[in-house]
Amino acid sequence: MPTNLPAEAKAKWVKYLEARSTEEKIEALEEFLSAVPKHKGTENLVAWARRKLSELRKELEEKKSRRSGSGGPTFFIEKEGAAQVVILGFPSSGKSSVLRALTNAKPEVGQIPFTTKLPVPGMMTYEDVQIQLIDTPAFVEDLSKGAVWWGTRLLGLARNADGLLIVLDASSNPIRQLEIMARELADSGIYLVRPRGQVQIIRGRSLQGVRVIVNGKLVGCTADDVRKLLESYRLYNSEVRITGEVTLDEVEKAIFEKITYKPSTILLNKVDLIKENQVTSLTRALMNVVPGVDVIPVSATLMSGFDRVPYLVFKMLNLIRVYTKEPNSDTHSPKPLILKEGSTVEDAVREIREEFLKFFRYARIWGPSAKYPGEKVGLSHKLMDKDIIEVRTTIKGI
Ligand SMILES: Nc1nc2c(ncn2[C@@H]2O[C@H](COP(=O)(O)OP(=O)(O)OP(=O)(O)O)[C@@H](O)[C@H]2O)c(=O)[nH]1
Ligand SMILES: [Mg+2]
Questions:
Q1: Are residues 283 and 347 in the same domain?
Q2: What is the pTM of this model?
Q3: How far apart are CA 268 and CA 299, in angstroms?
């Protein structure tokens, strides 16, 4: 449903976008909210603006307490390994037990809910890849609305992650747990199911008015409608990139909120506490809540069901491993480059040594993407998991 905002509200929105300090942003957003008419079409927008306001107020509080030297503990954990995957789940669902089962980390496990107070990292191994897992304080209902002090920080951690590992307690209505988590995350712009399409708005990118690049399909509207919509928000110099299927409402939503999709895997934990036939029906029901997401029954107490988890997590992250080889050498590097699926020789060369791009002649490939061992390819060749690459440049001897 369209928001049909009056021009006054749109003008206030522009003021919010232009605001620099947190104080200015809060003031502008308050003014914007008071100018937005409240009806069904603006429901989501109003909810978003209120949430953003509470986030900004918290940010301001934190800034002030930092200035006075009494800042709260930090939730930020430096990324290590190939990717960072954040473990999320309700109190006592078994998050810390899962981290213990999958890594060498030893976070505290307790019968009392809210045992974990701060994030704890650990390293999970899949073949020759290290994936960082982070155990977290519990997820609760109304997390984004200030139900617990760590709510926005936990959501921040999730937003910043490469993927999520969701732990559900099979003995305590896991379907409801998942539904609440999916809703809370979506309210904060974090989607567990890959959306049909994506909108990216880059402000100030275009010099000749609004530029709309469609790499997919606009549903029920034209590129001209998109341009007019952005102009009505005075976003004159924006570039809008559409991938997949996108409606005009979704474009408008993207003006307000940054939406991200997080690949996820669900661990249905504590299956030792339920009957075997229940495991099958629960797994199926959970898959219906989040289509396309893997659901794996496990028991952290019995240490069962975890064998496939490292592989499935690696697979969900859509990463590939590429091994480098020196010219005329028989062996390749033991440590792979970790690249996104769909990466090309150019991406690999950039990782190896960016300046090689200037002197690039060709590459030789062994492995799944090569038509024959040692195939000679150019920069645009698409690589696959477990390829071996040898780069030839015009630099003597390389
Ligand atoms: N029966 C059974 N109990 C489990 C399993 N996994 C964890 N538990 C128990 O559940 C309780 C909570 O486990 P934790 O790993 O601390 O759970 P958590 O999700 O980290 O809890 P918080 O940090 O408090 O949010 C402990 O008493 C564990 O022994 C399991 O697979 N089966
Ligand atoms: Mg814990």
A1: no
A2: 0.85
A3: 8
